[in-house]
């Protein structure tokens, strides 16, 4: 293929119109004078009809004089070269060049309708090609500099021939510093050096020349006529793509977490249910502290609703971030740090190659609920304390410190004070977490809420399973109210689900109540039976009534007296008599 696209350039586009034509009968002397006056190296000769019949050049004149044949008055037709080769204006420059090479001529007249209209000289062709080469070189440089990838071309000895602007930007090496020098003096381990050595292609090789910069490299050997002449490498900066990928991965993690949470907490289970005085007192405390950033620890027996309480605190706090629950007893000791703080790519064997954000990053701007905090290993207690103090974390295998703004709500059914005394829990962490303590009452101390919870679970489970709401017989209700519920709300929900699954004809009767509940409630009923002695029975009745009234009013004697419908002085008197 003709170089630089000149095969499509027509001769009329580059021909010169600066030429001399003389009549064939004019003297050779006049011909030479006109050539000298015009500073032209050639002159064309025409006949009476205006047709070009010859050409004379200064070289021809010189040869004539050397041979002693020169007579200045002789007509020019005597000396002219009668073999005139011409070309058409529509011929391409490539065709003109080939004609001149084949005939060993340096001047080619362009003739149209038997009349000369221009001249193509060898100098014109050279100038045109030099111009086109320079123009193409500039275009090629602009194209290479405009390419998004960093481009480097070296010769067979590794000398840099091309180093575009994106290569300067990516590797911080100016073109004037590296051009004409060996690439391996700057990048000893570069992929381009490997290709120079083994002549094998490299495709999409990952490389990180500096922190937070990610490159994908391809390098190929260059062959001309079967001879190895160099290597070209293209380096793509995929840092933005990697960062976007990480953001998408984080968003995916959050989305996955939210989906799980929606599935887990669909319905109204997330609300606190009940209106007993003891529960209302805890709700009031929680409402007051929720707007602050104070650390809260929720204590109470298993199944009392500590997570539901923590979630309610988060929702009332109006924090924009997520509520992220963590069961400390369910995380293997060796995975605690990576789960809480996350890890960078390649932090350990088996790690996700993209890295992973931890729970603290996930909950940034929100609330972390550390359930069963008493099961956290001692080494992690120290790390957690440091995070709470410095408000920043560092991923496993990472070097970058990440600022964290997350509220900590923890919970336990264990006696942390006793654990501190026994050296099983850090005292400094205990006081850091225990700014406000909310001790949730067991279900047996809020019996007035049992029927509300039963109704709630009935609606929730039946709606989920697509079943009709069953009726509950009175003796079953009485049994549920008298049972101790050592597993608290969790045990109550499981029992309700058991009754719904086993009931037939939408009726719950004693036949499907678990045996252990019947036995436990029966024993309690026997204990609560009154003796036949009326005086003793009355005393027991009054004691129980006073006790229940005080429990319902959280020890407020004025309110208890109102419930008992007796004067407050009478209540004080009876409490003194019964040594209550």
Average pLDDT, to the nearest integer?
84
Cα distance spanning the termini: 113 Å
Low-confidence stretches: 1-6, 263-270
Strand order of the largest sheet: 7-6-10-9-8
Structural class: alpha/beta
CATH class of the largest domain: Alpha Beta
Give the total of domains: 5
Q: Sheet with the most strands?
A: 5 strands, antiparallel
Query: Percentage of helical residues?
Result: 40-55%
**Total of helices:** 24
Share of β-strand residues = 15-25%
Description:
InterPro entries: AAA+_ATPase, AAA_lid_NorR, CBS_dom, CBS_dom_sf, Homeodomain-like_sf, HTH_Fis, P-loop_NTPase, PAS. It holds the Pfam family HTH_8. This is Sigma 54 transcriptional activator. Keywords: ATP-binding, CBS domain, Coiled coil, Nucleotide-binding, Transcription, Transcription regulation. GO terms for molecular function: ATP binding; sequence-specific DNA binding. The chain is rod-shaped. The chain contains 24 helices and 21 strands. The N terminus is likely disordered. The strands form 7 sheets. Strands 7-6-10-9-8 form a 5-stranded antiparallel β-sheet. By secondary structure, it is of the alpha/beta class. A hairpin with a 2-residue loop joins strand 4 and strand 5. The chain folds into 5 domains: 126 residues, CBS-domain; 91 residues, 2-Layer Sandwich (Beta-Lactamase), CATH 3.30.450; 176 residues, P-loop containing nucleotide triphosphate hydrolases (Rossmann fold, 3-Layer(aba) Sandwich), CATH 3.40.50.300; 86 residues, Orthogonal Bundle (Helicase, Ruva Protein, domain 3); 44 residues, Arc Repressor Mutant, subunit A, CATH 1.10.10. The relative contact order is 0.06.
């Amino acid at each position: 293929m003709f170089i630089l696209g000149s095969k499509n350039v027509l001769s009329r586009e580059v021909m010169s119109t600066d030429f001399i034509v003389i009549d064939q009968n004019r003297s050779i002397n006049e011909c030479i004078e006109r050539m000298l006056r015009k500073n032209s190296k050639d002159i064309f000769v025409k006949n009476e009809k205006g047709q070009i019949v010859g050409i004379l050049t200064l070289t021809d004149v010189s040869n004539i004089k050397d041979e002693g044949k020169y007579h200045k008055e002789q007509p020019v037709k005597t000396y002219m070269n009668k073999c005139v080769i011409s070309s058409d204006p529509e011929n391409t420059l490539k065709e003109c060049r080939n004609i001149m090479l084949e005939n060993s001529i340096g001047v080619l007249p362009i003739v149209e309708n038997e009349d000369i209209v221009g001249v193509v000289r060898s100098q014109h062709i050279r100038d045109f090609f030099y111009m086109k080469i320079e123009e193409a070189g500039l275009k090629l440089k602009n194209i290479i500099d405009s390419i998004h990838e960093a481009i480097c071309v070296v010769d067979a000895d590794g000398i840099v021939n091309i180093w575009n602007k994106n290569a300067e930007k990516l590797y911080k090496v100016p073109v004037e510093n590296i051009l004409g020098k060996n690439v391996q003096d700057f990048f000893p381990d570069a992929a381009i050096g490997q290709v120079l050595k083994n002549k094998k292609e490299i495709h999409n090789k990952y490389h990180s020349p500096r922190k937070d910069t990610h490159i994908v490299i391809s390098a190929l050997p260059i062959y001309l006529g079967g001879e190895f002449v160099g290597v070209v490498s293209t380096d793509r900066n995929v840092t933005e793509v990697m960062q976007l990928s990480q953001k998408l991965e984080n968003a995916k993690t959050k989305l996955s977490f939210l989906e799980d949470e929606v599935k887990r907490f669909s319905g109204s289970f997330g609300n606190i249910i009940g209106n007993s005085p003891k529960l209302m007192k805890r709700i009031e405390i929680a409402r007051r502290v929720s707007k602050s950033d104070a650390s809260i620890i929720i204590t109470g027996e298993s199944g009392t609703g500590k997570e539901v309480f923590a979630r309610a605190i988060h929702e009332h706090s109006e924090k924009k971030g997520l509520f992220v629950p963590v069961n400390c007893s369910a995380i293997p000791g060796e995975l605690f740090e990576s789960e809480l703080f996350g890890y960078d790519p390649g932090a350990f064997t088996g790690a996700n190659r993209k890295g992973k954000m931890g729970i603290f990053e996930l909950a940034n701007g929100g609330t972390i609920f550390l359930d069963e905090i008493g099961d956290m290993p001692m080494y992690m207690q120290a790390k957690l304390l440091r995070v709470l103090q410095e408000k920043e974390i560092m991923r496993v295998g990472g070097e970058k410190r990440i600022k964290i703004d997350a509220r900590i709500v923890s919970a336990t059914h264990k006696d942390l004070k006793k654990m501190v005394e026994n050296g099983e829990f850090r005292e400094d962490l205990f006081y850091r977490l225990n700014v406000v303590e909310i001790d949730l009452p067991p279900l047996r101390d809020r019996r007035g809420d049992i029927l509300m919870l039963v109704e709630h679970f009935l609606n929730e489970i039946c709606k989920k399973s697509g079943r009709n709401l069953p009726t509950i017989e009175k003796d079953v209700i009485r049994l549920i109210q008298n049972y101790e519920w050592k597993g608290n709300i969790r045990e109550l929900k499981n029992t309700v689900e058991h009754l719904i699954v086993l009931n037939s004809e939408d009726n719950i009767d004693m036949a499907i109540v678990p045996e252990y509940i019947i036995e436990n409630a029966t024993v309690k009923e026997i204990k609560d039976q009154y003796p036949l002695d009326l005086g003793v029975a009355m005393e027991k009745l009054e004691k129980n009534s006073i006790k229940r009234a005080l429990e319902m009013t959280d020890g407020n004697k004025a309110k208890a007296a109102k419930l008992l419908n007796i004067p407050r002085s009478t209540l004080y008197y009876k409490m003194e008599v019964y040594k209550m």
